[in-house]
Amino acid sequence: MVMIQEIFAIISVWLVQNTRAAPCPRSPSELNATSTDSSLAPSSFVDLSAIVSLLAADTVEDKVVSPAAPIWERMSTMWTLFGLVGAVRAYAKLALGLGRAEAAGVNLGGGGAYTTVRTKMAKSFRRVEGEGEEWWQDDRGSLLQAIYDDAQHSRWQRPIVIVLGYARCPLAGRHASRQVVNVAVNVAITVVLATIPLATLRIMERYMNDTQSTGVWTATLVLCFSTTAIAGCAVPLALVLYTTAPYARLEDNHGRDFPSSIINPNDTVMTPSAKGPCFILWQDTREAPRLRPGDVAPHRRAGDLKRVRILAALASAGVLAYYILNYVTLSSATTLQSYVWLGLQIVIMSARFVLWSSPRRFLDHSHRHVTVLYVVAGSLSYALPASGDDHWQQRRLTRPVVNAAVALAGSLLNNVHGSTAMLRQPTLALLADSGAPADILRAEYVDVAALHLEAPTLRLIRLPWSFMEQLYTLEGLILGKNPWAYGGLYLAACLVDGRFVGLTTVFALNKPDVSARLLATLQKSSSPAFFGVKAAGITRELCIVDNLVDGSILGTATPLEGEDYERWHVQFRKNVAECRAAAVPNGPEDVEVHTRHAAPASMGSKHVTRTENNMRDALAFVRTATDAEKSKDHHRCKGYCVIEAMVA
């Protein structure tokens, strides 16, 4: 309403200033005689129209790109000429590339929801067991954003949110007919309202009987109609169609057992910050996720598709051409016609603002709103105890947990602008295959020199802090202070013939001169000549490591004068022990099951929660809900799809 008051205030001041100068209506002969003297409408009228148009431009742009805007609100941006500058900006960004637009300094608003290119507000998503498979997603204004907000206020320090899937009414029966009819009605309303002001000029044809004026009016009307069809109907429908939920339908997620397959290789994960929650998005267990219908490459969104960008380019060019040509048409109109046109545009714009501020439910039946089922927990399965317990030392790491921890660590590092060079999924996955204990930080340290003499196949697998932090979070523990930030040392798991035997620590040799001196002593002592080999690290036992991620032992070096590595290793191992001893439980052992729907605020919000004793019970309930989804009657669904198991 503030916007409407500003508009009427501007109009009032303009009318007061131009009352004496307002020209009288002209006869047809006068119109023809003067039509060649002015190529545009009166300057004061053009100034007023431009001011009103710019006032509405920002809200129009926001409606066009907002992922939460209903389809009718997107279409309504073309109802009136005022505000179309915002539509030109939005479609131009989409056509040129949303990532490029933001890199050039243009604010995206909600446009980041339509691209997987990295933008300022986008978060990094990674696929479980997918080496280097990552993309970016901006979820502002979407249903996932509501889930993010819920997780921030949960009972767990770092909640683990598993988005199990969504339910949506099928495009059949009354849902299909209502959706098709509503889209058709919105299209008709959009075309009619966009053309009414121009049509009014033709109704007053005694003021427009010049052949040239009629031709310009006809061209403007045709351009208005075609632009409205593309920018007001085709592009909004394409944005909604090709930007679907980044997780699978609930009924497609079946066959997951407890606890081994809570996470499948196709699932995606995201963690926004070091202290933030972890998000695991279930995908269809039968195939790789395709987030848009009919597209082969996964994880691409509407703004990444050439066909959508071409439509946006046509819409942007068409709107701009129509905007300019409309004022050329008004240059052949009388002052009375200009006032009538201006009055109709303001009335339509005012009605649009009223509907935007107080939406009517009957306008929003074009969507089949989804409902998301998700759980919030403190661990994936069985939580490790914070204090030492030998019984739990018998439990081993599983590949799904290791793979999820690697993916979550990669997402975290991307989101905090860190490096993922030391985070290699195939290498860390060997920990699960080797039988490493779930509580790996409590494993014993081994004598690397003795193992190397007995088993030359010894491998040292680096355990990055980012990985260890996420691994223990998934196992229900929050570790203490980061000990890896100490003096260039790192922790490594020792594998002999693919079998986990214990831990060791490695000092990274970042100084080339020290590395060369140690390698020289190694060559003189017992090993054959090394050509092109670099000493990357050294263990407590002075064993030279050739790689800081997946290393093997080159041999044992002799101590260098003035270099004391012993005390560094001792202090680092003490820090690791203190880090594990300071670990605390992530939170309560029970699990919350939630549902949220994506209907707009005008249809009311629905958020249902239930609590289960553990993850096993929660997944048993999920299995029941999934089975019910396959055969349920959708006649109970009003506005959004009801998950009957949650309201039974």
Automatic annotation (TrEMBL):
Q: Where are the transmembrane segments?
A: 183-204, 216-242, 310-330, 336-355
What domain of life does the native source organism fall in?
Eukaryota
Q: Which UniProt keywords apply?
A: Membrane, Signal, Transmembrane, Transmembrane helix
**Leader sequence residues:** 1-21
Q: What is this protein called?
A: Uncharacterized protein
Species lineage, top-down? Eukaryota, Fungi, Dikarya, Basidiomycota, Agaricomycotina
